[in-house]
Every structure is written in structure tokens, then in C-alpha cells.
Structure to design on (738 residues):
């Protein structure tokens, strides 16, 4: 009996230990890994959650008072996980939906572990007393995160420098995530301040509250600003108007509210003043507008998300597949070229799980609060011996309702990560303590406990190996291979190939980096004639064959990513020096890429490069007519891409820059002649030049910005006139520019 109690006690400590590891994993960074701020924390969370879950199963076997408890939060979380899994199975890229990638680590695999985390939290921690300890552990971890951020603020960087510059990123690595994480710390410290009676503890919680509020402000995350402004504003109103029934506090509330409104309005009215501009925080807040770059990008991305949702309204595209919508509906209204998130909780959940998934997720966030409000309206009054002020009675549901409101507001402008998932799951599990319980008798049976414990224990080493050790091993080996500058080429290639052969998480990312390594070798080879030996040509040619094979596998694994086709086209354009037929393959890849993202200029620029290299190839082989034809195609496609750019100055710079590169082509006079006599646009090359002139004249540029651009256009015109000296239209444009 004593041995059984000792085992149960050990399992208890193991569960508490795993909980501490999960909360403090936010501090863990392993610089030996690819995306160290994400992958290191995720690996620790997955392992600790699995061990914690198995430990609880054995604890429930050892001690009859424990069993798996199913409440409204567990049911809603399970329903959301199931819906998202089904949506992903019907999506185009289940592999990515399940694994995600190293940068995000937000696939179904993570969501399964978050569900297991919920199961343990709701089943093991059944009293307010225990939950206060849980919150204390979390706040201790968040305090450490805040102290690291504070060190960054003062420029000490004794732990780690901020990865976001002046915006504090602490050990989380992203200021936006830190802002969201601090929202939990601020409101939980406020909650604990009122729940604990010890004055020293109250001082401790007050310190955390003030510090984490300060850190949240210094992250310069506008979503966190709005979340805290609304959340703390509602909290302040609650405490001054209801919690403390004091007329002086009500006057204070009215005064603070007036000052706050006037201050915010004044901030926007005087946003161009030296005082506002001198403060990075004030200027960042004052810059909020629908026309500001970040806001414009968000609005454009949300519009893309809406278009994608109309296409697949019920189940969406599956977890982690927003990139497909972004590719398909991409427009240069968004200055960001690659987004894998909608940067809006509603949009993201609607795209990944459709309307059904979105409703399920919102239900998970909101429905459990019905239970906690109901409890404090009925059961709490019956159980409480002390008759409290009505407003004080609802303190707990009010604070946690404000917290979830602040979380939702924050996530209307960013997206979740593990750093915010963990406290969210913790809060929902606590709120679920008051919700509806579902009694399934088999969960308490001894046979179920024994069988489930043994099964999960047997599965544990296989799960840790497949989901943690193998992916992390590949990740670490990849970085090791990538970072060794003195590694011989054949050894580097062999190592990369072996890592990719493991077929685990990250191959899509690793192959792109692998291709970048190849680009570096080719660039060095082309820029140094003295190393162009037959041996080196053979080595790089063989290397190019391996890269081509890997990038083709990339397409086979994920034929729905335009980034994969662009990577393949860039490779073909780089490696055609070893096999010229690769340029034809690039043209074929272009057809697939443009189907996936018809409005993406980069695709047209890349195929323009393909035609340019084809023209050079034909010119070298004395096929002048084919060379001229391909130079025309080159400019035609580049013009199409540039014309998609809604920023007229970018349109001019890109187009003029490309024409300058054409003027430097071999036999440039023949190229000019071919272009002048072609129909590369509705009005030929003259029409392109005329449009460029109109664009340049229509943009309000300073003399310093305008002069070099006019010089650039003049040099292009002078070159084109060499191809057709009698062309009056070109001469007219040249005179105009003079």
C-alpha cells in the first residue's frame, strides 16, 4: 500500500513538474536549430505534454479519486480538432496541415497535444486552491520573460538581444507574440492581486502587473495596445463604478475617461508634431489609419481571405493552408509578397476550417463562459457563507471575460503561436471547471484506466521519436551542415541529401535552403574564371542534377505552392549553363505557377529572365532571329509583371531597370533593333517608354529622386535609337526628356 502511495505521489510531482516545464519552456531557445525561437519551445511542449498525459493516466489507475473528466471545454476543443482534421483531409495539403513547418509549428500535431493538455488540466486540477497555484507558476514564467525583455529595453542584452530591434521580443522572438503573451500576464496578475490576502503577495502581483503592462507597451504591438486599452478600460470602470462603492472613485473614473479620450484624440490631431514623432510608441499609435502600410496590407489580405472563403465556405482549405488563398488572390495592394496567415483570427479560422470550423472555434472561446457566469449567479451564492456585494460576487467571471475579450481583440490583428496557445488553454481549462460535466462511467472503470495507461505508455517512445527526436535531429543536422563553411562540396551534398531522405518535418524549407547553397556555388563559379576547370564544371553539373531532383520532389509533395514553382524556375535559370534545355523546363513551370497565382509579378519577372537567357543562348549560337524573338518575349513578360504593380513608382523602377539590363546584353544594338520593331505592348516599345514618362511625370518626386530616373530613361532611349535612328516617336520622347 505504501509503495502504491509512493508511486501515486511521484506521479503527482511528475505532473506538476511537466506543468512547470511547459510554462517555463517559453524561455527556452536552442541556437543550434532552424527557427530556434519556435522549434525549441515546440519540442519541449510536445514531450512534456505526452509525459504529463501518460503520468495522469497512471495516476488515475493508482488513485481512484482521479479519472478523465469531460466538460464543455473538452467537448468543444475535441469538436474543433475533429472538424479541422476533416477539413484538412479534404484540403490540398494534409502533410503540411498535420506537420506545419519549422517556422510556425502550428499543425494538427500541435493541436492534438494542446487537446491532451486540456484533458490533463481539466481532469487533474479540480479546485480553486490548485488553480491559484497553477496561475502562480504561469506568472513566475511570465515574470522571467518580462525581465529578459526589460534587460533588452535597457540595452543590457545579458540574456539575448531582441530579434525585433527596438520592439521587445524577449525569449519569444516576436514582439507581436510577446504583446499577446503579456495580455495574459497583466490580467492574471490583476486577478491574483484580488484573490490573495497576503500583502507581500499583493505587492508581488502588483509588480508583475505594472512590469508586464510596461513590456506590452514597449513591444509596440498595436493589437496589444487596443486589447489592453479596452480590457483595462472595462476593468477600471468595473472597479471604480461597481467593485468599490465610492463616489470619489466614480469622479476619478469620469476624470480619467475624459483625459484618456482627449489624449487619444489629441494624439491623432497632433500626430505630425515633434513631440509625437520623437516617441516611437506615440508615433506608432498615431500612425494607425486605413491607408497606413500595415493596415493596408491587413485589409488587402482580409479581402483575399473573403474571396477564398466564398470558394470553400463549409470546411475551408485545412490547417496551415492559407498560403493557397494568398497565392491565388494575390495583389500588389499588399506590399508583403508572402503571407501564410490572414493576420485576423476570424479570417484565419474561416479559411482553415470554413464556416463550420470558425463557429466551432468561437464556441470554444465563448461558450464555456456561460458556465462560469451561471455558477456565480446560482451555485456560488448557495455555497458561500458570506453575503458579498453583488458586483464583487461576479469578480472572477468578469475578470476572465475581460481577459478573453482582450485576447480576441489582440488576435483580430495577428495570429496565434505556442506562446499564446498555452495560456489560452490554461484559461479555458480553468473556466471549464464551472461548466457542464459529462459523466461517462467507463472513464472511471479500472479496466479502462489500466488499458489506456498501458497503451499510451507503449506508444510514448514511438511518439516522442517520430514527432520530436527525428524532426529535431534533422533540424539540428541541417543547421550544422548549412553553417560549416569549410565543409567540402561532396560532403555537404551528401549530408543534405541524407537529411532530406529522412522524410520528416521541414523538407520543404530545407530544400529551398539547399537550392540557395547551390546558387552561391554557381555565383562563385561564374564570377571567378580561374576556377572554371573541367573538374569543377563536372562537380557543379552533378550538384545541379541533385538539386533538380530535390526541387521536383518538392513539387510532387506540394504542387499547390507557387513558391515551389518559383524556386524551380529560379534554379532552371541559374543551372541552364550546365544543361540549356532547363530553360524550356522553366517555361513549363511558369505555366503551372501562373495558374496558381495569376497576379504575382515575380512569376512574370522570372519567366522574363528565362527568355532573356534563351535569347543570349541563341545569340551565342548565331541564331539572331531566335535571339531577337526571345528578347522581345523577355521584355513582354517583364512588362506584364510590372504592369501588375499598383505602386507606379515601383512599376517605373522595375521596368526601367530591366530595360537597362537589356541594353547591356551581348550585341545590344541588335537587341534594340528587335525591340523597336516588335509589339511588346499595345503600342510597342514606344508605348512602353511613353507610359514610363507619363508615370514619372505623374509622381510627385523631389529633384534628387527624379533626376537619376530621368537619366536612366534617357540612357534607355539613346540605346533604343541606336536600333532605329530614324524612329520619330523615340526621338520625340528623347526631346521631351531633355
Amino acid at each position: 500500500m505504501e509503495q502504491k502511495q509512493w508511486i501515486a505521489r511521484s506521479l503527482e510531482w511528475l505532473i506538476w513538474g511537466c506543468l512547470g516545464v511547459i510554462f517555463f519552456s517559453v524561455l527556452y531557445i536552442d541556437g543550434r536549430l532552424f527557427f530556434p525561437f519556435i522549434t525549441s519551445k515546440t519540442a519541449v511542449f510536445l514531450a512534456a505534454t505526452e509525459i504529463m498525459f501518460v503520468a495522469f493516466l497512471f495516476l488515475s489507475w493508482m488513485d481512484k479519486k482521479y479519472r478523465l473528466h469531460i466538460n464543455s471545454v473538452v467537448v468543444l476543443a475535441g469538436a474543433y480538432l475533429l472538424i479541422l482534421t476533416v477539413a484538412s483531409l479534404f484540403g490540398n495539403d494534409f502533410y503540411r496541415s498535420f506537420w506545419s513547418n519549422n517556422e510556425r509549428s502550428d499543425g494538427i500535431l500541435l493541436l492534438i497535444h494542446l487537446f491532451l493538455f486540456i484533458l490533463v488540466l481539466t481532469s487533474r486540477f479540480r479546485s480553486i486552491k490548485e488553480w491559484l497555484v497553477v496561475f502562480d507558476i504561469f506568472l513566475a514564467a511570465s515574470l522571467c520573460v518580462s525581465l529578459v525583455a526589460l534587460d533588452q529595453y535597457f540595452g543590457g542584452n545579458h540574456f539575448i538581444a531582441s530579434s525585433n530591434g527596438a520592439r521587445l521580443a524577449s525569449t519569444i522572438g516576436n514582439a507581436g507574440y510577446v504583446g499577446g503573451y503579456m495580455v495574459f500576464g497583466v490580467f492574471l496578475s490583476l486577478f491574483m492581486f484580488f484573490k490573495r490576502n497576503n500583502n507581500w503577495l499583493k505587492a508581488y502581483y502588483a509588480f508583475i502587473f505594472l512590469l508586464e503592462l510596461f513590456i506590452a507597451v514597449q513591444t509596440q504591438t498595436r493589437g496589444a495596445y487596443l486589447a489592453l486599452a479596452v480590457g483595462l478600460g472595462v476593468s477600471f470602470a468595473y472597479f471604480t463604478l461597481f467593485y468599490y462603492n465610492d463616489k470619489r472613485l466614480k469622479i476619478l473614473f469620469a476624470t480619467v475617461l475624459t483625459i484618456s479620450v482627449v489624449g487619444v484624440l489629441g494624439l491623432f490631431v497632433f500626430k505630425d508634431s515633434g513631440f509625437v514623432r520623437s516617441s516611437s510608441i506615440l508615433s506608432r499609435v498615431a500612425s494607425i489609419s486605413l491607408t497606413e502600410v500595415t493596415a493596408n496590407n491587413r485589409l488587402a489580405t482580409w479581402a483575399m481571405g473573403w474571396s477564398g472563403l466564398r470558394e470553400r465556405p463549409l470546411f475551408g482549405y485545412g490547417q496551415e493552408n492559407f498560403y493557397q488563398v494568398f497565392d491565388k488572390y494575390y495583389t500588389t495592394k499588399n506590399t508583403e509578397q508572402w503571407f501564410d496567415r490572414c493576420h485576423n483570427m476570424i479570417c484565419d479560422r474561416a479559411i482553415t476550417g470554413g464556416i463550420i470550423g470558425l463557429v466551432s472555434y468561437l464556441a470554444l472561446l465563448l461558450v464555456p463562459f456561460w458556465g462560469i457566469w451561471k455558477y456565480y449567479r446560482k451555485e456560488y451564492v448557495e455555497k458561500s457563507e458570506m453575503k458579498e456585494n453583488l458586483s464583487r460576487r461576479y469578480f472572477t467571471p468578469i475578470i476572465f471575460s475581460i481577459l478573453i475579450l482582450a485576447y480576441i481583440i489582440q488576435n483580430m490583428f495577428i495570429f496565434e503561436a505556442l506562446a499564446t496557445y498555452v495560456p489560452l488553454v490554461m484559461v479555458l481549462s480553468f473556466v471549464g471547471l464551472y461548466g457542464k460535466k459529462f459523466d461517462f462511467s467507463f472513464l472511471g472503470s479500472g479496466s479502462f484506466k489500466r488499458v489506456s495507461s498501458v497503451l499510451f505508455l507503449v506508444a510514448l517512445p514511438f511518439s516522442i521519436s517520430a514527432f520530436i527526436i527525428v524532426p529535431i535531429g534533422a533540424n539540428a543536422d541541417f543547421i550544422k551542415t548549412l553553417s560549416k563553411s569549410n565543409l567540402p562540396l561532396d560532403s555537404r551534398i551528401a549530408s543534405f541529401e541524407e537529411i532530406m531522405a529522412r522524410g520528416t518535418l521541414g523538407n520543404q524549407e530545407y530544400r529551398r535552403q539547399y537550392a540557395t547553397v547551390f546558387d552561391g556555388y554557381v555565383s562563385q563559379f561564374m564570377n571567378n574564371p580561374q576556377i572554371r576547370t573541367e573538374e569543377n564544371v563536372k562537380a557543379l553539373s552533378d550538384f545541379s542534377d541533385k538539386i533538380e531532383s530535390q526541387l521536383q520532389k518538392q513539387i510532387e509533395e506540394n504542387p499547390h505552392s507557387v513558391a515551389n514553382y518559383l524556386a524551380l524556375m529560379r534554379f532552371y535559370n541559374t543551372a541552364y549553363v550546365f544543361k540549356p534545355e532547363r530553360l524550356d523546363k522553366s517555361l513549363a513551370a511558369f505555366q503551372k505557377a501562373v495558374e496558381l497565382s495569376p497576379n504575382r509579378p515575380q512569376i512574370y519577372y522570372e519567366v522574363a529572365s528565362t527568355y532573356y537567357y534563351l535569347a543570349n543562348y541563341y545569340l551565342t549560337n548565331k541564331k539572331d532571329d531566335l535571339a531577337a524573338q526571345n528578347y522581345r518575349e523577355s521584355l513582354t513578360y517583364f512588362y506584364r509583371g510590372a504592369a501588375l504593380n499598383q505602386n507606379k513608382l515601383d512599376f517605373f523602377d522595375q521596368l526601367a531597370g530591366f530595360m537597362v539590363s537589356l541594353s547591356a546584353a551581348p550585341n545590344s544594338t541588335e537587341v534594340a533593333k528587335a525591340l523597336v520593331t516588335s509589339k511588346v505592348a499595345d503600342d510597342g516599345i514606344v508605348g512602353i517608354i511613353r507610359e514610363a514618362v507619363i508615370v514619372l511625370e505623374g509622381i510627385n518626386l523631389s529633384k534628387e529622386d527624379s533626376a537619376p530616373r530621368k537619366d536612366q530613361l534617357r540612357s534607355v532611349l539613346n540605346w533604343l535609337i541606336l536600333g532605329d535612328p530614324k524612329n520619330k516617336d523615340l526621338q520625340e520622347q528623347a526631346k521631351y526628356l531633355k
Remarks:
- Residues 146 and 215 are 6 Å apart (CA to CA).
- The chain has a mean pLDDT of 88.
- The beta strands are 70-71, 437-438.
- The first helix runs from residue 2 to 24.
